[in-house]
Amino acid sequence: MSRFIRRTRLICHASATKSTLTLNRLSRAIGLSLLLPAAWVSAATTQDATAEMERMVITATQTKHSELSAPASVSVINRSELEALVIDDLASAVRYLQGVNISEGTPYGRNEISLRGLDSDYTLILINGRRVNSREALTSGYGNDFDLSSIPMSAIERIEVVRGPMSSLYGSEALGGVVNVILRKPTDDWQTSVGVQYDTPTSGKGGDSTKYNFYTSGALIKDKLLANLIVDSNKRDAWRSDLKPTIDALEDRDEISALANLQWLIDSQQDLQFDLSYANDERESDWNNYGTILTNNQQAERISSGLTHNGHWNWGDTRLRYYYENVEVTDDSALIAEIGNITQTNHNLDGQTTVLLGDHMLTSGAEYRWTQLENSRNILGDGTLDDSQSALYLQDEFSLGELNITLGGRVDHHDVYGTEFSPRMYLVYNLSSEWVIKGGGGKAFKAPNMAQSQADYIIPACRGACTVAGNPDLQAETSVNYELSTQYQTTDFGGSITYFHNDVENKIITETWDRTPGAVLTYQNVNEAKITGWELQAWYDVSDTVSISGNYSKTDAEDKQNGAPFTLTPDDSYNLKLQWQALEGLSTFIAYHYTGDQYLRTNVKSTGYGSLDLGANYQINPMFRVKLGVTNLTDAERDQVATDLDYIQKSRSIYAGVTASFR
To answer: What is the residue-wise DSSP string for 167-189?
Structure first.
């Protein structure tokens, strides 16, 4: 990666249109951080400042910071980096980031994003800061990764991953961390691109994948009405490994997603944005149920829309938005006789204000969510459940000399589990403009979902031998957490080391399996868990054309009551990457991803495994760009323990793609 791009990791010194007095007040309030609301930064910034914004993050505080100064552990992957990879969904897009574990939701290739030792139920997925949620329609126990595939990959501008609890801003589910997908905004000038990518395994049967994407953006009315349209499709045949030729190691997928945005520039201080998206995802797989091969068919159809008003005033920024999500799931598995037709509808209304009062940057907001679930197969009575929740939050950012301080708190009220308060404090001490020590702590929570908290919600379990009913007496899972980190970044070199500790109480578990025909189990708050670990990363620009980078994560997660380890939680993982700008327009990379030893079942441990990938991107001319590459170059396999449980790594695969752009 070039020295210029590395320089974007440093603090952005953008020019502003406000007076020198305003900027001096800001600099005192924020130290090294850039906390300016969008209206206080001139749209006519220099080219360098515009490029530097690629490395700014907003998810940690809802205000702009550099990665170095952000009061949290944050990783970012931008569009140019995504375009160099072969990506199926959001999980594959973030697999190389520090502290991220892509765990197997099912033996037939469904992946989940886990952060810092906690499974995917504790990772909050956002799109432009908005929740994406179909977990009530299909719980994670049934391999629900439909949220990850609902986002058109060609619509992504960048992805921000905050590792560590963030309930003080986002409420429930943000106990492990937050993955925020920032989408491409409509542009002033018209630009269009079309692309195709093909991926094929070199062994086994099937597995061929073909992806198409279309993107167009521009002004419908110059300087007044902007729009874009993004369409992605992906067709992948089921893949069967030579190790287990009777079952699908990767399921058959047929996906299409589309996103359209309209932005009305009302005047220089406010705009109105409307978005509409559609996704249809069909899956089919043959899998092993205790020696019997069963066929699983599922389809998720999603429609979502949103309306957002952004105000950029002399005194601060405001945002008011409403967004709607409707997910219809057809669940047809041979394990269950009745086909499930499930509909989840989410309504969300929220508002936020960011204002500078003296030397304090205050961010406050309110949120209301209402969810309705229709499921005639699993919900007794009329087959309908609903719940609502509301929240208020406040955050204060200020500085004392070289010490930047962030204080925040959020109160959530739910009509089932009651009220939870989530406070947070984070400190960033600036040793210099390139070196910081930072750390903090707080309290976070995860609310029981409908399946866990509603007595009328009955789901099959034990692979069909028993059922599980919800428990209305459940309490929310809570955690007390803290971390300490030091980070150093220059234009040529950077690195960080972080220690984290998370104590989880009232962890919800399902009662021990009882395969007696007709047995009814439920959920209980019994477990306490402790998760500790270390995260290290470093990068170095050897020259203007060669750079190396790597990261390492070590996690120790166990049940405090009986000392049992977490399942599907690797002891450690690491990534190594070498990038070479071989020619003008030609970039290449070689990367190795390693996932360490982990328990697949409580007493069944599998050894670690890795994948060596390489690729090249060539900008032939301003119109055409091609990419070629190989994943799992050495055709590495998982050990026999994992293979016996049907966890199989995809074999060596070759991919190629071409994109044509028009302006």
So the answer is: HHHH-TTTTSEEEEEEEPPP-SS
Beta-strand pair 177-183/123-127: parallel
Secondary structure (3-state) at 539: strand
Contact yes or no for 64/36 (Cβ under 8 A): yes
Q: For residue range 462-516, list pLDDT tens digits in order.
A: 766 788 899 988 999 999 999 999 999 999 999 999 999 999 999 888 876 666 7
Which helix H or strand E contains 586, and what residues bound it?
A: strand 586-595
Both structure tokens of 80: 């140019």
Asked if residue 433 lies in contact with residue 74, where contact means CB atoms within 8 angstroms, the answer is no
Per-residue model confidence (pLDDT) at position 416: 80
Q: Which two tokens stand for residue 340?
A: 């499930």
3-state class of 491 per DSSP?
A: coil
SS3 of residue 562 by DSSP? coil
Q: How many of the other CB atoms lie within 10 Å of CB of 448? A: 24
Bridge-partner residues for 446, per DSSP?
Answer: 477
pLDDT tens, position by position, 371-410: 999 998 889 888 999 999 999 999 999 999 999 999 999 9
Q: Which of 530, 529, 535, 444 is nearest to 483 (CA)?
A: 535
User: Which class for 33: exposed (0-12), middle (13-18), buried (19 or more C-beta within 10 A)?
Assistant: buried
Site of tokens 């520090």: 98
pLDDT of 142: 62
User: What would the pLDDT profile of 529-550 be if each residue is shown by its tens digit?
Assistant: 899 999 999 999 999 999 999 9
Q: For every residue of 128-155, which 3-state class applies, written as one string?
A: CCEECCCCCCCCHHHCCCHHHHCCCHHH
Contacts 24+ apart (CB under 8 A), 35-40: 35/61, 35/63, 35/64, 35/65, 35/361, 35/397, 36/63, 36/64, 37/63, 37/312, 37/316, 37/317, 37/354, 38/64, 38/310, 38/312, 38/317, 39/269, 39/312, 39/313, 39/314, 39/316, 39/317, 40/16
> Of 373, 384, 442, 368, nearest to 168 (Cα)?
442
DSSP 3-state assignment of 49? helix
> For residue 376, which of 486, 289, 456 has the smallest C-alpha distance?
456
Contact 250/281 with Cβ under 8 angstroms? no
Give the dihedral of Cα atoms 422, 354, 128, 420; nearest 10 deg.
Answer: 10
Q: Which amino acid is at 234?
A: N
Could you give phi then psi for residue 357, rounded to 5 degrees?
Answer: -115, 105
Length of the chain equals 663
Distance CA 86, CA 236 (A): 13
Residue 234 near residue 241 (C-beta atoms within 8 A): no
Query: Does residue 631 contact residue 613 with C-beta atoms inside 8 Å?
Result: yes
The helix (H) or strand (E) run that includes residue 48 is helix 47-52
**Predicted model pTM:** 0.90
> Which whole-number Å values give the CA distances from 223 to 269, 273, 388, in the listed order?
13, 14, 40
Q: What is residue 6's three-state secondary structure?
A: helix
What sign results for the dihedral spanned by CA atoms 139, 145, 149, 155?
positive
User: Does residue 470 sit in helix, strand or coil?
Assistant: coil
- Residue type at 254 in one-letter notation: D
